[in-house]
Amino acid sequence: MTVTAAQGFTAAGIAAGIKENGNPDLALVVNNGPRLAAAGVFTSNRVKAAPVRWSEQVLRGGAVSAVVLNSGGANACTGPKGFQDTHATAEKVAQALGGEHNAGEVAVASTGLIGVLLPMDKLLPGVDTAVAALSADGGEAAAVAIKTTDTVHKTAAVTREGWTVGGMAKGAGMLAPGLATMLVVLTTDADLDSATLDRALRAATRSTFDRVDSDGCMSTNDTVLLLASGASGTAPAYEDFAEAVRTVCDDLARQLIGDAEGASKDIRIEVVGAASEDDAVEVGRSIARNNLLKCAIHGEDPNWGRVLSAIGTTQAAFDPDRLNVAINGVWVCKNGSVGEDRDLVSMKDREVRITADLSSGSESAVIWANDLTAEYVHENSAYSS
Hints:
Blueprint: E1 9-14, E2 26-31, E3 37-42, H1 50-60, E4 66-71, H2 79-97, E5 106-111, H3 120-133, H4 139-145, E6 154-159, E7 164-170, E8 183-188, H5 194-207, E9 223-228, H6 238-258, E10 266-274, H7 277-288, H8 291-298, H9 304-311, E11 324-327, E12 330-334, E13 337-338, E14 351-357, E15 363-370, H10 374-382
Parallel strand pairs: 4-5, 8-9, 10-14
Antiparallel strand pairs: 1-2, 2-4, 3-9, 6-7, 7-8, 10-15, 11-12, 11-14, 12-13
Helix pairs in contact: 1-2, 2-3, 5-6, 7-9
């Protein structure tokens, strides 16, 4: 159920000393081929961390032989020195792996505190330790090593006829469109080229990671990579492969929202009856980011008026007198006014389902969010970011 579920990959996760608490903080995933095909999507934040800018360049070549990831420091907003450190990290990985590896095929990802340079005197020796620890069973250790405020590590995999897609993710806060404060590495032993990987990955992230909206905050470091080793010797049909990639991404995205900082409720917001998919997504995001509603959900109050208020801030096509809202299957708002008795709504379970019907068309979208709690405020006042 990890990045090493697919044939042709080894991984490791070790404690290099980047984190002061001594927890694992450096992960390495290596594609042993025979293919080195790769694709990636990154944050849409205009302030991009050095490893994002480096890895964007690497992906233009279409080949990735290794990914090195660190937690304990984002290497964002660190100027030319930060980019030099990213380059040095890739060079070190290539040198430590030996053979025909080169820095131009090594992607780098970082997560943690913004505005602080990484301790390269610890990170670079840690690369040697990680290379020595590489194993076909190392996927779980790698997933643990990329955690920051995560309470659990996150992995997923699916196996189809003769081939597999596996993956790992980290993320617990700053979960918003443009991916999330997350690092994701996906692997497959399917024998496919980079263009096919890119098409499948963008289709998958569009309806999974890009629709997780925990707190409306967009990271500087978001990175999702998909690597193909071709080790299975099987080239599946595009539709089958895209479905498998989406399944793994959806699984990981749900794990991200389920581990969101301080959350006590997972909120599934489904917008139906929209004139366009863009309208549905815009409305879903507006509902997801309404702090009054998020507080109400935390208090188990089915306050549908706050849903309508959020819908009304959008540019979506709708008639206010035709809006309908259901909370956990009870249509508490009908035709823009009072619907079924709100006392019929039970909100005791972790998952809360909100359905917003715009009555304007046939398009729909689902956005995942979570409630706003005192624990979230505490964690983000105590943790510098």
